[in-house]
Amino acid sequence: MTLTATAPVPPARPPAAQAPAAPPRRLLARLSPYAYIAPFFALFAAFGLFPLLYTAYVSLYRVELQTPGEMEWRGLDNYTALLRDDFFWTALRNTFTIGVVSTVPQLLMALGLAHLLNYRLRGRTFFRVTMLLPYATSVAAATLVFAQLFGRDFGLVNWALGLAGIGPVDWQSGTVASQIAVSTIVTWRWTGYNALIYLAGMQSIPGELYEAAELDGASRWRQFLHVTLPGLRPTVLFTIVVSTIGATQLFGEPLLFEGSISGGISHQYQTLGLYMYEQGWGYFHLGRAAAIAWVTFVLIVLLVLLNTALARRRSRKGTRR
């Protein structure tokens, strides 16, 4: 009789405690860019998007500055009241006129100055820094100085015109004269800023293009037309859009030129910004002022879309050629 011995089975070990799973690296890599840009969107929502939407909400009500808590539903009456107001159309026309008179010469002079600064000149760093001085100057200080220069009785501009045999001009009462004076302030402040933007765009154009054009016998003017301007097309579009937005929102220069929110005796240089300020803080109609703000916003969007469409059309024509 044979006995078979069976080895005892060792007791099962308790399962080892598993370490907590680390967050996957791929998920962190995907979420980290959103964490970096989250502060911007939070600030934009608080100080950009919310005021924009709340202004649209207020524009549908009758709200007075003295009693902002009392709101009376008006629907689109604030907008229809604007369309029946002659001063609104005057402000809209003045905004367009001052915008054109200040933007076109400003960008042309900025382009010419940038072209000169693009060459190797002595002290070009000094000239580049000087270009930013008008932009760094306070709007109030610059406007007050220009208001003295354009004075009717003792202004330096009328004195210079008198030397040329031209009689004194009332720069604050005349419609065309006052708009030219306000446009001059805007042009003086922003020409250097746009010149430096154009200069940065010119320096990004490859130098080989200029060398090839020079070998082909092209003069500096031909190089500017056929090399510089096509290379600056995106930069020019950017400055046009920014200048259009700035001209539509023009406020400080016409306000401080004479110190009146009405833009002169006959509203001859009152812009949309001044008109909105007059309705909201002059006549205390916050609902109507909010409607003006939204009309200005829609106008800016339409002008930007128009500029973009025209620029794309020109670029397509240039590509076909």
From TrEMBL:
Pfam families: BPD_transp_1. The chain crosses the membrane at residues 34-57, 96-117, 129-150, 291-311. GO terms for cellular component: plasma membrane. It is found in: Cell membrane. PROSITE patterns: ABC_TM1. The lineage of its organism: Bacteria, Bacillati, Actinomycetota, Actinomycetes, Kitasatosporales. The keyword Transmembrane helix applies. Residues 1-20 are annotated as: Disordered. It comes from Actinacidiphila glaucinigra. This is Cellobiose ABC transporter membrane protein. The keyword Transmembrane helix applies.
